[in-house]
User: Which sequence fits this backbone?
């Protein structure tokens, strides 16, 4: 049983999340230095000040399997070991799993496809880009990030307040059966399932990352118990994930009307960005959500290399306050943010606004 605490925001983390080391990415055929690096964990921890740290507890896979297919989880757990059983490290010096072959609809044309025998072909059946590589510690880090999120859920369930989950690698691009966008397991989606299991009938997910959380949206696309709301750089302006994140995406089936996207033009700064935060938070509150998951990407910041948005520290501080005033309890899950010099300060600004 976790003890109650006075509010400042408890910070949940695990040293195991440092084990994922992407080393590099492949973008438009060029090997580039990876931006989702282990130093992100320490940059954030170093800015947490007097907030109380909590070590993540281990959890079984019950909630994880509500979010992800078992076949996908089995693949991800064994992917690197299977790769290393092949010739790739010796022949081409590649000790990371990098997909190169993608069995898209354009290939299949309606024909049934067989499971590829080669590890380098199999990878593209689960991963949808060439940037998201798997190394020796990737599974352990990603699985530990899930435990981080669920420990934060446990704290929130006990206290009725908020908790911050320092998840790394991020998760909001991970779908039910696939990964990409530097994401492997969907921490925010697992947190939402945890809040439902704790007794909340309807949970909102508010995604502040600079890029649309296509994975979270897809997982809850046909559901009415978890609402998804996102503000992000307009994919129509050429930004990841390119084919999803448009304003006309509203959900389907029982989930129709329970997805809401606000795409923002490149160059958008604090005023329009915080207005979108207010709009979406108000919508989630008015739709009957009694708990919230915030996908806290801080890559919308002006200094961040991964986004053209221009949000400042003050903008993130304001957003934290807006959310706290509208809807609690809240599980705050770390997503993107790649400028190491400012990363921790931006997370601190959001949490300080949330605590005010």
Assistant:
């Amino acid at each position: 049983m976790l003890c109650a605490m006075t509010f400042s925001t408890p910070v949940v983390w695990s040293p195991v999340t440092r084990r994922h080391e992407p080393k590099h990415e492949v973008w438009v055929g060029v090997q580039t230095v990876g931006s989702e690096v282990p130093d992100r964990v320490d940059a954030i921890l170093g800015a947490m000040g007097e907030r109380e740290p909590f070590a993540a507890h281990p959890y079984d896979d019950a909630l994880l399997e509500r979010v992800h297919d078992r076949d996908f989880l089995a693949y991800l757990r064994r992917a690197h070991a299977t790769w290393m059983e092949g010739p790739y490290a010796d022949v081409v010096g590649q000790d990371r799993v990098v997909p190169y072959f993608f069995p898209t609809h354009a290939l299949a044309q309606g024909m049934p496809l067989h499971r590829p025998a080669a590890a380098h072909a199999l990878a593209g059946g689960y991963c949808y880009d060439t940037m998201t590589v798997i190394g020796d510690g990737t599974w352990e880090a990603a699985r530990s990030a899930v435990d981080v999120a669920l420990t934060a859920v446990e704290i929130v369930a006990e206290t009725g307040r908020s908790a911050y989950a320092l998840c790394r690698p991020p998760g909001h691009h991970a779908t039910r059966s696939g990964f990409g966008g530097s994401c492997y397991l969907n921490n925010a989606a697992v947190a939402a399932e945890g809040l439902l299991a704790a007794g909340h009938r309807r949970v909102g997910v508010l995604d502040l990352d600079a890029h649309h959380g296509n994975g979270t949206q897809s997982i809850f696309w046909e559901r009415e118990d978890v609402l998804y709301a996102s503000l992000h750089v307009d994919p129509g302006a050429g930004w990841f994930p390119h084919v999803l994140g448009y304003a006309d995406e509203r959900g389907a089936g029982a989930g129709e009307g329970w997805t809401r996207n606000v795409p923002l033009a490149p160059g958008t700064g604090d005023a329009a960005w915080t207005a979108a935060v207010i709009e979406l938070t108000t919508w989630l509150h008015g739709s009957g959500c009694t708990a919230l998951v915030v996908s806290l990407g801080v890559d919308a910041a002006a200094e961040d290399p991964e986004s053209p948005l221009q949000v400042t520290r003050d903008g993130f501080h304001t957003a934290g306050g807006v959310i706290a005033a509208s809807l609690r309890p809240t599980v705050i899950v770390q997503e993107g943010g790649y400028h190491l010099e400012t990363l921790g300060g931006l997370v601190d600004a959001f949490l300080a606004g949330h605590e005010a």
The chain is about 35% helix and 15% strand.
